[in-house]
Write a structure and sequence with these properties.
The complex is a heterodimer of chains A (357) and B (175). Helices cover 28% and strands 21% of the residues of chain A. Chain A has helices at residues 10-15, 19-39, 50-61, 154-166, 173-180, 182-192, 246-257, 327-344; strands at residues 74-83, 101-110, 125-133, 139-144, 205-206, 211-214, 220-229, 260-268, 288-300, 321-323. In chain A, strands 1, 2, 3, 4, 5, 6, 7, 8, 9 and 10 form a 10-stranded antiparallel beta sheet that branches. In chain A, helix 3 (50-61) runs parallel beside helix 4 and helix 4 runs antiparallel to helix 5 (173-180). Chain B is mostly helical and 175 residues long. Chain B has helices spanning 11-34, 41-68, 80-111, 127-162, 166-171. Classes of the chains: A alpha+beta (357), B mainly alpha (175).
Protein backbone atom coordinates (compact mmCIF):
# COMPACT_ATOMS: atom_id res chain seq x y z
CA UNK A 1 0.00 0.00 0.00
CA UNK A 2 1.43 3.34 -1.01
CA UNK A 3 1.72 6.17 1.41
CA UNK A 4 -0.46 9.23 1.02
CA UNK A 5 2.38 11.37 -0.30
CA UNK A 6 3.69 8.86 -2.87
CA UNK A 7 0.37 7.86 -4.47
CA UNK A 8 0.43 11.04 -6.61
CA UNK A 9 4.10 10.55 -7.55
CA UNK A 10 4.22 8.77 -10.90
CA UNK A 11 7.78 7.51 -10.40
CA UNK A 12 6.77 5.85 -7.15
CA UNK A 13 3.66 4.43 -8.83
CA UNK A 14 5.73 2.96 -11.65
CA UNK A 15 8.27 1.56 -9.21
CA UNK A 16 5.42 -0.16 -7.37
CA UNK A 17 4.36 -1.96 -10.57
CA UNK A 18 1.87 0.59 -11.83
CA UNK A 19 3.03 0.49 -15.46
CA UNK A 20 0.39 -2.03 -16.54
CA UNK A 21 -2.37 0.05 -14.95
CA UNK A 22 -1.07 3.24 -16.56
CA UNK A 23 -0.87 1.46 -19.95
CA UNK A 24 -4.42 0.20 -19.62
CA UNK A 25 -5.66 3.76 -19.00
CA UNK A 26 -3.85 4.88 -22.14
CA UNK A 27 -5.35 1.99 -24.10
CA UNK A 28 -8.91 2.77 -22.96
CA UNK A 29 -8.62 6.47 -23.87
CA UNK A 30 -6.97 5.66 -27.21
CA UNK A 31 -9.68 3.12 -28.05
CA UNK A 32 -12.44 5.69 -27.49
CA UNK A 33 -10.56 8.25 -29.60
CA UNK A 34 -10.01 5.74 -32.42
CA UNK A 35 -13.67 4.72 -32.41
CA UNK A 36 -14.61 8.39 -32.72
CA UNK A 37 -12.23 8.85 -35.64
CA UNK A 38 -13.65 5.73 -37.31
CA UNK A 39 -17.25 6.97 -36.95
CA UNK A 40 -16.18 10.35 -38.31
CA UNK A 41 -14.85 8.59 -41.41
CA UNK A 42 -11.26 9.76 -40.90
CA UNK A 43 -10.00 6.27 -41.71
CA UNK A 44 -12.35 5.89 -44.70
CA UNK A 45 -11.39 8.43 -47.39
CA UNK A 46 -13.51 6.54 -49.94
CA UNK A 47 -16.72 6.57 -47.90
CA UNK A 48 -19.54 8.17 -49.90
CA UNK A 49 -20.20 11.20 -47.70
CA UNK A 50 -22.33 14.31 -48.28
CA UNK A 51 -19.08 16.24 -48.69
CA UNK A 52 -17.92 13.82 -51.41
CA UNK A 53 -21.21 14.39 -53.27
CA UNK A 54 -20.84 18.18 -53.00
CA UNK A 55 -17.21 17.87 -54.16
CA UNK A 56 -18.41 15.97 -57.21
CA UNK A 57 -20.79 18.79 -58.15
CA UNK A 58 -17.87 21.20 -57.88
CA UNK A 59 -15.68 18.99 -60.06
CA UNK A 60 -18.37 18.51 -62.71
CA UNK A 61 -19.56 22.11 -62.89
CA UNK A 62 -16.58 24.16 -61.79
CA UNK A 63 -16.50 26.19 -58.60
CA UNK A 64 -19.08 28.96 -58.28
CA UNK A 65 -18.69 30.45 -54.80
CA UNK A 66 -21.86 31.61 -53.10
CA UNK A 67 -24.15 29.54 -55.33
CA UNK A 68 -25.98 26.28 -54.75
CA UNK A 69 -23.91 23.28 -55.85
CA UNK A 70 -26.93 22.07 -57.83
CA UNK A 71 -29.93 23.95 -59.21
CA UNK A 72 -27.59 26.93 -59.20
CA UNK A 73 -29.41 29.22 -61.64
CA UNK A 74 -32.68 30.35 -60.16
CA UNK A 75 -35.30 32.98 -59.43
CA UNK A 76 -37.37 33.52 -56.27
CA UNK A 77 -41.17 33.68 -56.22
CA UNK A 78 -43.48 34.34 -53.28
CA UNK A 79 -47.16 33.77 -52.75
CA UNK A 80 -49.50 31.49 -50.89
CA UNK A 81 -51.10 28.08 -50.83
CA UNK A 82 -54.87 27.79 -50.38
CA UNK A 83 -55.97 24.38 -49.14
CA UNK A 84 -59.37 23.12 -50.32
CA UNK A 85 -59.52 20.54 -47.52
CA UNK A 86 -59.35 17.50 -49.79
CA UNK A 87 -55.94 16.52 -48.35
CA UNK A 88 -57.14 16.61 -44.74
CA UNK A 89 -58.50 13.05 -44.82
CA UNK A 90 -55.04 11.72 -45.73
CA UNK A 91 -52.78 14.00 -43.67
CA UNK A 92 -53.25 15.84 -40.40
CA UNK A 93 -50.76 18.52 -41.54
CA UNK A 94 -52.07 22.00 -40.83
CA UNK A 95 -51.45 23.09 -44.46
CA UNK A 96 -54.23 20.72 -45.62
CA UNK A 97 -57.00 21.95 -43.31
CA UNK A 98 -60.08 23.22 -45.18
CA UNK A 99 -59.63 26.88 -46.07
CA UNK A 100 -56.11 27.05 -44.57
CA UNK A 101 -53.89 29.68 -46.18
CA UNK A 102 -50.11 29.25 -45.98
CA UNK A 103 -47.18 31.47 -46.93
CA UNK A 104 -45.07 30.26 -49.82
CA UNK A 105 -41.46 31.11 -50.64
CA UNK A 106 -40.56 29.38 -53.87
CA UNK A 107 -37.65 29.12 -56.24
CA UNK A 108 -37.61 28.26 -59.94
CA UNK A 109 -34.32 26.83 -61.20
CA UNK A 110 -32.49 24.75 -63.74
CA UNK A 111 -31.04 21.47 -62.58
CA UNK A 112 -27.27 21.49 -62.73
CA UNK A 113 -24.49 23.28 -60.94
CA UNK A 114 -23.82 26.18 -63.32
CA UNK A 115 -25.35 29.48 -62.14
CA UNK A 116 -24.80 31.23 -65.48
CA UNK A 117 -25.76 28.43 -67.87
CA UNK A 118 -27.67 29.84 -70.88
CA UNK A 119 -31.38 29.03 -70.75
CA UNK A 120 -32.27 25.93 -72.71
CA UNK A 121 -35.69 24.27 -72.65
CA UNK A 122 -34.03 20.84 -72.66
CA UNK A 123 -32.48 21.42 -69.23
CA UNK A 124 -34.49 19.88 -66.39
CA UNK A 125 -36.45 22.58 -64.54
CA UNK A 126 -37.28 22.64 -60.85
CA UNK A 127 -39.60 24.40 -58.49
CA UNK A 128 -38.81 24.34 -54.77
CA UNK A 129 -41.27 25.58 -52.20
CA UNK A 130 -41.44 26.38 -48.53
CA UNK A 131 -45.09 26.26 -47.41
CA UNK A 132 -45.78 27.58 -43.92
CA UNK A 133 -49.12 28.21 -42.24
CA UNK A 134 -49.13 30.95 -39.57
CA UNK A 135 -48.08 29.38 -36.30
CA UNK A 136 -47.67 25.98 -37.95
CA UNK A 137 -44.88 23.73 -39.11
CA UNK A 138 -43.10 24.32 -42.37
CA UNK A 139 -43.10 21.99 -45.37
CA UNK A 140 -40.27 22.18 -47.89
CA UNK A 141 -40.24 20.36 -51.18
CA UNK A 142 -37.93 20.48 -54.17
CA UNK A 143 -39.70 19.23 -57.29
CA UNK A 144 -38.53 18.43 -60.83
CA UNK A 145 -40.29 18.53 -64.20
CA UNK A 146 -39.31 14.94 -64.99
CA UNK A 147 -41.57 11.92 -64.41
CA UNK A 148 -39.02 9.95 -62.38
CA UNK A 149 -35.43 10.16 -61.15
CA UNK A 150 -32.67 8.62 -63.27
CA UNK A 151 -31.20 6.65 -60.35
CA UNK A 152 -32.57 4.77 -57.38
CA UNK A 153 -29.95 5.48 -54.74
CA UNK A 154 -27.04 7.73 -53.93
CA UNK A 155 -24.37 5.24 -55.02
CA UNK A 156 -25.88 5.16 -58.51
CA UNK A 157 -26.22 8.94 -58.42
CA UNK A 158 -22.53 9.33 -57.68
CA UNK A 159 -21.56 6.75 -60.29
CA UNK A 160 -23.75 8.32 -62.98
CA UNK A 161 -22.38 11.81 -62.31
CA UNK A 162 -18.85 10.37 -62.34
CA UNK A 163 -19.51 8.79 -65.74
CA UNK A 164 -20.81 12.11 -67.06
CA UNK A 165 -17.67 13.85 -65.81
CA UNK A 166 -15.49 11.14 -67.35
CA UNK A 167 -17.34 11.56 -70.65
CA UNK A 168 -15.36 14.77 -71.24
CA UNK A 169 -12.28 12.65 -71.94
CA UNK A 170 -13.83 9.25 -72.53
CA UNK A 171 -16.87 9.17 -74.84
CA UNK A 172 -17.59 5.58 -73.79
CA UNK A 173 -17.95 6.43 -70.07
CA UNK A 174 -21.73 6.99 -70.05
CA UNK A 175 -22.61 4.06 -72.35
CA UNK A 176 -20.40 1.81 -70.21
CA UNK A 177 -22.14 2.98 -67.03
CA UNK A 178 -25.57 2.41 -68.56
CA UNK A 179 -24.57 -1.07 -69.67
CA UNK A 180 -23.58 -1.89 -66.09
CA UNK A 181 -26.75 -0.25 -64.71
CA UNK A 182 -29.67 -1.38 -66.91
CA UNK A 183 -32.12 0.10 -64.39
CA UNK A 184 -30.65 3.56 -65.04
CA UNK A 185 -30.76 2.96 -68.80
CA UNK A 186 -34.45 2.11 -68.37
CA UNK A 187 -35.17 5.09 -66.08
CA UNK A 188 -33.70 7.73 -68.40
CA UNK A 189 -35.99 6.72 -71.29
CA UNK A 190 -39.16 8.39 -69.91
CA UNK A 191 -37.04 11.38 -68.85
CA UNK A 192 -35.73 11.82 -72.39
CA UNK A 193 -39.21 11.27 -73.82
CA UNK A 194 -41.04 13.71 -71.55
CA UNK A 195 -43.18 16.48 -72.99
CA UNK A 196 -41.18 19.70 -72.84
CA UNK A 197 -43.38 22.75 -72.28
CA UNK A 198 -42.76 26.34 -73.35
CA UNK A 199 -41.44 27.55 -69.99
CA UNK A 200 -41.51 27.56 -66.20
CA UNK A 201 -45.11 28.75 -65.79
CA UNK A 202 -46.81 25.97 -67.80
CA UNK A 203 -44.62 23.15 -66.51
CA UNK A 204 -45.51 20.33 -64.09
CA UNK A 205 -43.18 19.73 -61.14
CA UNK A 206 -43.09 16.34 -59.39
CA UNK A 207 -41.91 15.36 -55.91
CA UNK A 208 -40.24 12.26 -57.46
CA UNK A 209 -39.58 10.82 -53.98
CA UNK A 210 -42.47 9.07 -52.25
CA UNK A 211 -43.59 10.22 -48.82
CA UNK A 212 -46.04 9.06 -46.18
CA UNK A 213 -49.12 11.04 -45.27
CA UNK A 214 -50.23 10.43 -41.69
CA UNK A 215 -53.91 11.09 -40.98
CA UNK A 216 -55.34 12.29 -37.65
CA UNK A 217 -56.39 8.70 -36.86
CA UNK A 218 -52.89 7.41 -37.59
CA UNK A 219 -53.64 5.95 -41.02
CA UNK A 220 -50.54 6.03 -43.20
CA UNK A 221 -50.81 6.51 -46.97
CA UNK A 222 -47.92 6.40 -49.43
CA UNK A 223 -48.06 9.40 -51.76
CA UNK A 224 -46.21 11.51 -54.27
CA UNK A 225 -47.23 15.03 -55.20
CA UNK A 226 -47.04 17.39 -58.14
CA UNK A 227 -47.58 21.04 -58.91
CA UNK A 228 -49.72 21.06 -62.08
CA UNK A 229 -49.92 24.39 -63.92
CA UNK A 230 -53.19 26.27 -64.28
CA UNK A 231 -51.76 27.78 -67.49
CA UNK A 232 -52.40 25.32 -70.32
CA UNK A 233 -49.08 23.75 -71.36
CA UNK A 234 -47.81 25.23 -74.60
CA UNK A 235 -45.28 23.54 -76.87
CA UNK A 236 -41.67 24.61 -76.69
CA UNK A 237 -40.36 27.08 -79.26
CA UNK A 238 -36.81 27.58 -80.49
CA UNK A 239 -34.32 29.41 -78.30
CA UNK A 240 -33.65 33.00 -79.43
CA UNK A 241 -30.00 33.95 -79.98
CA UNK A 242 -28.16 36.11 -77.46
CA UNK A 243 -30.83 35.87 -74.79
CA UNK A 244 -29.20 33.64 -72.19
CA UNK A 245 -32.03 34.15 -69.65
CA UNK A 246 -35.01 34.11 -72.00
CA UNK A 247 -36.97 31.41 -70.20
CA UNK A 248 -36.61 33.22 -66.88
CA UNK A 249 -37.45 36.54 -68.59
CA UNK A 250 -40.59 34.92 -70.01
CA UNK A 251 -41.56 33.83 -66.49
CA UNK A 252 -40.99 37.37 -65.17
CA UNK A 253 -43.14 38.80 -68.01
CA UNK A 254 -45.84 36.18 -67.40
CA UNK A 255 -45.91 37.05 -63.69
CA UNK A 256 -46.38 40.76 -64.48
CA UNK A 257 -49.70 39.95 -66.19
CA UNK A 258 -51.25 37.86 -63.40
CA UNK A 259 -50.20 35.45 -60.64
CA UNK A 260 -48.82 32.11 -61.79
CA UNK A 261 -50.86 29.26 -60.30
CA UNK A 262 -50.52 25.53 -59.85
CA UNK A 263 -52.79 22.85 -58.47
CA UNK A 264 -51.15 20.74 -55.79
CA UNK A 265 -52.09 17.22 -56.82
CA UNK A 266 -51.45 14.27 -54.51
CA UNK A 267 -51.00 10.86 -56.14
CA UNK A 268 -51.99 7.96 -53.88
CA UNK A 269 -50.03 4.71 -54.18
CA UNK A 270 -51.86 1.45 -54.76
CA UNK A 271 -50.88 -1.60 -52.74
CA UNK A 272 -47.62 -2.95 -54.11
CA UNK A 273 -46.37 0.33 -55.58
CA UNK A 274 -42.71 0.79 -54.74
CA UNK A 275 -41.93 3.76 -52.55
CA UNK A 276 -38.20 3.19 -52.09
CA UNK A 277 -37.29 3.66 -55.74
CA UNK A 278 -37.64 7.20 -57.17
CA UNK A 279 -36.51 5.93 -60.59
CA UNK A 280 -39.83 4.16 -61.13
CA UNK A 281 -42.95 6.28 -61.70
CA UNK A 282 -46.31 4.92 -60.56
CA UNK A 283 -48.89 4.08 -63.24
CA UNK A 284 -50.84 7.08 -64.55
CA UNK A 285 -54.08 5.40 -63.41
CA UNK A 286 -53.39 6.02 -59.71
CA UNK A 287 -55.86 8.10 -57.73
CA UNK A 288 -55.04 11.81 -57.90
CA UNK A 289 -56.43 14.34 -55.44
CA UNK A 290 -56.37 18.10 -56.01
CA UNK A 291 -55.69 19.43 -52.51
CA UNK A 292 -55.41 23.16 -53.20
CA UNK A 293 -53.95 25.98 -55.24
CA UNK A 294 -50.46 27.42 -55.06
CA UNK A 295 -50.33 31.04 -56.20
CA UNK A 296 -47.09 32.86 -56.91
CA UNK A 297 -47.83 36.56 -57.18
CA UNK A 298 -44.37 38.10 -57.11
CA UNK A 299 -40.98 37.14 -58.50
CA UNK A 300 -37.74 38.41 -56.97
CA UNK A 301 -34.08 38.20 -57.87
CA UNK A 302 -32.13 36.06 -55.42
CA UNK A 303 -31.15 38.32 -52.52
CA UNK A 304 -30.28 38.16 -48.82
CA UNK A 305 -33.15 36.77 -46.75
CA UNK A 306 -35.30 35.48 -49.63
CA UNK A 307 -35.26 32.10 -51.38
CA UNK A 308 -31.50 32.46 -51.85
CA UNK A 309 -31.03 31.84 -48.14
CA UNK A 310 -33.35 28.87 -47.78
CA UNK A 311 -32.08 25.32 -47.95
CA UNK A 312 -34.94 23.47 -49.70
CA UNK A 313 -34.23 20.37 -47.68
CA UNK A 314 -36.72 17.68 -48.75
CA UNK A 315 -36.72 16.22 -45.24
CA UNK A 316 -38.18 19.38 -43.68
CA UNK A 317 -41.73 18.14 -43.18
CA UNK A 318 -44.61 19.08 -40.88
CA UNK A 319 -46.31 16.56 -38.58
CA UNK A 320 -48.62 14.64 -40.92
CA UNK A 321 -46.00 14.17 -43.64
CA UNK A 322 -43.08 11.78 -43.16
CA UNK A 323 -40.31 10.42 -45.38
CA UNK A 324 -40.91 7.07 -47.09
CA UNK A 325 -38.29 4.33 -47.26
CA UNK A 326 -36.75 6.10 -50.29
CA UNK A 327 -33.07 6.44 -49.30
CA UNK A 328 -32.60 9.48 -51.54
CA UNK A 329 -34.65 11.75 -49.25
CA UNK A 330 -32.04 11.49 -46.51
CA UNK A 331 -29.19 11.63 -49.04
CA UNK A 332 -30.59 14.83 -50.55
CA UNK A 333 -31.05 16.32 -47.09
CA UNK A 334 -27.44 15.50 -46.15
CA UNK A 335 -25.95 16.82 -49.38
CA UNK A 336 -28.08 19.98 -49.50
CA UNK A 337 -26.86 20.73 -45.99
CA UNK A 338 -23.21 20.61 -47.11
CA UNK A 339 -23.98 22.73 -50.19
CA UNK A 340 -25.85 25.24 -48.02
CA UNK A 341 -23.09 25.45 -45.42
CA UNK A 342 -20.41 25.94 -48.08
CA UNK A 343 -22.22 28.68 -49.99
CA UNK A 344 -23.41 30.38 -46.79
CA UNK A 345 -19.82 31.18 -45.87
CA UNK A 346 -18.71 32.26 -49.33
CA UNK A 347 -18.67 35.71 -50.93
CA UNK A 348 -21.83 36.23 -52.96
CA UNK A 349 -22.07 37.61 -56.47
CA UNK A 350 -25.35 38.71 -58.11
CA UNK A 351 -27.37 35.93 -59.70
CA UNK A 352 -27.74 35.71 -63.48
CA UNK A 353 -31.47 36.42 -63.43
CA UNK A 354 -32.35 39.92 -62.25
CA UNK A 355 -35.89 41.24 -62.03
CA UNK A 356 -35.96 44.83 -63.36
CA UNK A 357 -37.40 47.17 -60.71
CA UNK B 1 -6.30 3.59 4.00
CA UNK B 2 -4.27 6.42 5.28
CA UNK B 3 -6.05 9.16 3.30
CA UNK B 4 -8.95 11.30 4.40
CA UNK B 5 -12.06 9.66 2.85
CA UNK B 6 -13.72 11.72 0.10
CA UNK B 7 -17.40 12.50 0.68
CA UNK B 8 -19.47 11.06 -2.16
CA UNK B 9 -21.47 13.27 -4.52
CA UNK B 10 -25.20 13.37 -3.76
CA UNK B 11 -27.41 10.82 -5.50
CA UNK B 12 -28.95 13.56 -7.69
CA UNK B 13 -25.47 14.76 -8.71
CA UNK B 14 -24.43 11.23 -9.62
CA UNK B 15 -27.60 10.52 -11.59
CA UNK B 16 -27.20 13.80 -13.50
CA UNK B 17 -23.51 13.10 -14.16
CA UNK B 18 -23.94 9.59 -15.52
CA UNK B 19 -27.10 10.35 -17.49
CA UNK B 20 -25.41 13.29 -19.16
CA UNK B 21 -22.19 11.33 -19.65
CA UNK B 22 -24.08 8.76 -21.74
CA UNK B 23 -26.09 11.39 -23.63
CA UNK B 24 -23.15 13.68 -24.38
CA UNK B 25 -20.80 10.93 -25.55
CA UNK B 26 -23.62 9.47 -27.70
CA UNK B 27 -24.32 12.95 -29.07
CA UNK B 28 -20.72 13.57 -30.05
CA UNK B 29 -20.59 10.23 -31.87
CA UNK B 30 -23.96 10.87 -33.56
CA UNK B 31 -22.87 14.36 -34.60
CA UNK B 32 -19.55 13.37 -36.10
CA UNK B 33 -21.09 10.29 -37.70
CA UNK B 34 -24.15 11.92 -39.23
CA UNK B 35 -22.24 14.65 -41.06
CA UNK B 36 -20.22 11.88 -42.73
CA UNK B 37 -23.26 9.75 -43.58
CA UNK B 38 -25.85 9.81 -46.31
CA UNK B 39 -28.67 7.32 -45.74
CA UNK B 40 -28.94 7.48 -41.92
CA UNK B 41 -28.42 11.27 -41.93
CA UNK B 42 -32.03 12.38 -41.53
CA UNK B 43 -32.86 10.00 -38.67
CA UNK B 44 -29.63 10.86 -36.86
CA UNK B 45 -30.22 14.60 -37.31
CA UNK B 46 -33.72 14.35 -35.84
CA UNK B 47 -32.31 12.46 -32.85
CA UNK B 48 -29.39 14.90 -32.54
CA UNK B 49 -31.71 17.90 -32.29
CA UNK B 50 -33.98 16.42 -29.63
CA UNK B 51 -31.13 15.03 -27.51
CA UNK B 52 -29.37 18.40 -27.82
CA UNK B 53 -32.33 20.16 -26.22
CA UNK B 54 -32.46 17.49 -23.51
CA UNK B 55 -28.78 18.01 -22.73
CA UNK B 56 -29.26 21.78 -22.52
CA UNK B 57 -32.17 21.34 -20.10
CA UNK B 58 -30.21 18.84 -17.99
CA UNK B 59 -27.19 21.16 -17.98
CA UNK B 60 -29.36 23.94 -16.52
CA UNK B 61 -30.68 21.62 -13.79
CA UNK B 62 -27.17 20.40 -13.13
CA UNK B 63 -25.70 23.89 -12.82
CA UNK B 64 -28.38 24.88 -10.28
CA UNK B 65 -27.76 21.64 -8.38
CA UNK B 66 -24.01 22.28 -8.40
CA UNK B 67 -24.45 25.84 -7.11
CA UNK B 68 -26.73 24.59 -4.32
CA UNK B 69 -24.59 21.54 -3.52
CA UNK B 70 -20.89 22.19 -4.14
CA UNK B 71 -18.70 19.26 -5.12
CA UNK B 72 -17.00 17.32 -2.30
CA UNK B 73 -13.54 18.54 -1.40
CA UNK B 74 -10.66 16.80 -3.14
CA UNK B 75 -8.24 14.88 -0.90
CA UNK B 76 -5.91 17.31 0.90
CA UNK B 77 -2.94 15.10 -0.03
CA UNK B 78 -3.57 15.76 -3.73
CA UNK B 79 -0.87 18.11 -5.07
CA UNK B 80 -2.03 21.68 -5.60
CA UNK B 81 -1.34 21.59 -9.36
CA UNK B 82 -3.57 18.55 -9.88
CA UNK B 83 -6.31 20.09 -7.78
CA UNK B 84 -6.23 23.26 -9.88
CA UNK B 85 -6.40 21.28 -13.12
CA UNK B 86 -9.40 19.40 -11.70
CA UNK B 87 -11.19 22.66 -10.85
CA UNK B 88 -10.49 24.27 -14.22
CA UNK B 89 -11.60 21.13 -16.07
CA UNK B 90 -14.99 21.31 -14.37
CA UNK B 91 -15.48 24.92 -15.52
CA UNK B 92 -14.52 23.89 -19.06
CA UNK B 93 -16.90 20.92 -19.07
CA UNK B 94 -19.80 23.06 -17.83
CA UNK B 95 -18.98 25.68 -20.47
CA UNK B 96 -19.16 23.06 -23.24
CA UNK B 97 -22.40 21.56 -21.87
CA UNK B 98 -24.07 24.93 -22.44
CA UNK B 99 -22.10 26.24 -25.42
CA UNK B 100 -22.53 23.26 -27.73
CA UNK B 101 -26.36 22.96 -27.59
CA UNK B 102 -26.73 26.75 -27.70
CA UNK B 103 -24.50 26.88 -30.81
CA UNK B 104 -26.68 24.21 -32.43
CA UNK B 105 -29.83 26.16 -31.62
CA UNK B 106 -28.28 29.45 -32.78
CA UNK B 107 -27.00 28.06 -36.09
CA UNK B 108 -30.38 26.49 -36.96
CA UNK B 109 -32.01 29.83 -36.09
CA UNK B 110 -29.64 31.83 -38.30
CA UNK B 111 -30.37 29.46 -41.23
CA UNK B 112 -34.14 29.49 -40.48
CA UNK B 113 -34.30 25.73 -40.27
CA UNK B 114 -37.44 24.66 -38.43
CA UNK B 115 -36.61 24.05 -34.77
CA UNK B 116 -37.87 21.06 -32.79
CA UNK B 117 -40.56 21.66 -30.13
CA UNK B 118 -41.38 25.00 -31.82
CA UNK B 119 -38.44 26.65 -30.08
CA UNK B 120 -38.07 30.32 -31.00
CA UNK B 121 -35.31 31.60 -33.26
CA UNK B 122 -32.50 33.12 -31.21
CA UNK B 123 -30.58 34.64 -34.14
CA UNK B 124 -31.50 36.85 -37.12
CA UNK B 125 -31.79 35.15 -40.52
CA UNK B 126 -28.24 35.43 -41.86
CA UNK B 127 -26.45 32.77 -43.85
CA UNK B 128 -23.08 34.36 -43.09
CA UNK B 129 -23.83 34.09 -39.37
CA UNK B 130 -25.04 30.51 -39.94
CA UNK B 131 -21.74 29.60 -41.64
CA UNK B 132 -19.72 30.97 -38.70
CA UNK B 133 -21.90 29.26 -36.09
CA UNK B 134 -21.92 25.98 -38.02
CA UNK B 135 -18.11 25.89 -38.10
CA UNK B 136 -17.96 26.81 -34.43
CA UNK B 137 -20.37 23.95 -33.64
CA UNK B 138 -17.98 21.50 -35.30
CA UNK B 139 -14.86 22.88 -33.62
CA UNK B 140 -16.46 23.14 -30.17
CA UNK B 141 -17.75 19.57 -30.55
CA UNK B 142 -14.23 18.36 -31.22
CA UNK B 143 -12.78 20.34 -28.29
CA UNK B 144 -15.59 19.02 -26.06
CA UNK B 145 -14.70 15.45 -27.06
CA UNK B 146 -10.99 16.02 -26.35
CA UNK B 147 -11.86 17.49 -22.94
CA UNK B 148 -14.03 14.46 -22.19
CA UNK B 149 -11.15 12.14 -23.15
CA UNK B 150 -8.91 13.99 -20.69
CA UNK B 151 -11.65 13.83 -18.04
CA UNK B 152 -11.91 10.07 -18.65
CA UNK B 153 -8.14 9.68 -18.35
CA UNK B 154 -8.12 11.68 -15.11
CA UNK B 155 -11.03 9.64 -13.69
CA UNK B 156 -9.19 6.41 -14.49
CA UNK B 157 -6.00 7.79 -12.91
CA UNK B 158 -7.97 8.40 -9.70
CA UNK B 159 -9.55 4.94 -9.92
CA UNK B 160 -6.52 2.84 -10.84
CA UNK B 161 -3.39 4.79 -9.91
CA UNK B 162 -4.12 7.33 -7.16
CA UNK B 163 -6.85 5.22 -5.52
CA UNK B 164 -7.78 8.24 -3.44
CA UNK B 165 -11.58 7.89 -3.37
CA UNK B 166 -12.19 10.65 -5.95
CA UNK B 167 -13.46 8.21 -8.58
CA UNK B 168 -15.62 6.42 -5.99
CA UNK B 169 -17.17 9.75 -4.95
CA UNK B 170 -18.83 9.93 -8.39
CA UNK B 171 -19.02 6.21 -9.19
CA UNK B 172 -21.06 5.80 -6.02
CA UNK B 173 -19.37 2.69 -4.72
CA UNK B 174 -18.84 2.46 -1.00
CA UNK B 175 -15.26 3.25 -0.14
Amino acid sequence: MSTSSSRYDLRAVLAAGGLARLASIGAIVAAVALLFAYVAGWFSPHRLTPAALADQFERNNGEHPGFRRNHSKGLCAVGDFASNGAGASLSKAQVFRPGQMSHVVGRFAFAGGMPFVPDDPKIVRSLAVSIRPDGGSEWRSGMLDIPNFPVRNVEEFYGFNQAQADAKTNPKAVPAFLEQHPDVAQAIKPIGGRTITSGFADDTYNSINAYRFVAADGTVTAVRWSLVPVDPPAPVTGAPANEPNYLFEALIAREKKSPVQYKLVVTVAAPGDVTENPAVAWPATRQQIDVGTLTLNRVESEAPGNCRDINYDPAVLPPGIAPSDDPLISARSATYSVSFTRRAGETKTPSAVQVAP
Amino acid sequence: MNTTPVTPFSLLSRVLHWTMAVLIVAMLFIGVGMVASVSPYHRLLSLHEVVGILILALAAIRLINRLLHPAPLLPPQMPRGLREIAHISHYVLYFFMFAQPLLGWAMLSAARYPLPLHLPDIMPHSVELYATLRHAHGIVGLLFFITILMHLAAALMHALIYRDGVFASMAGRSH
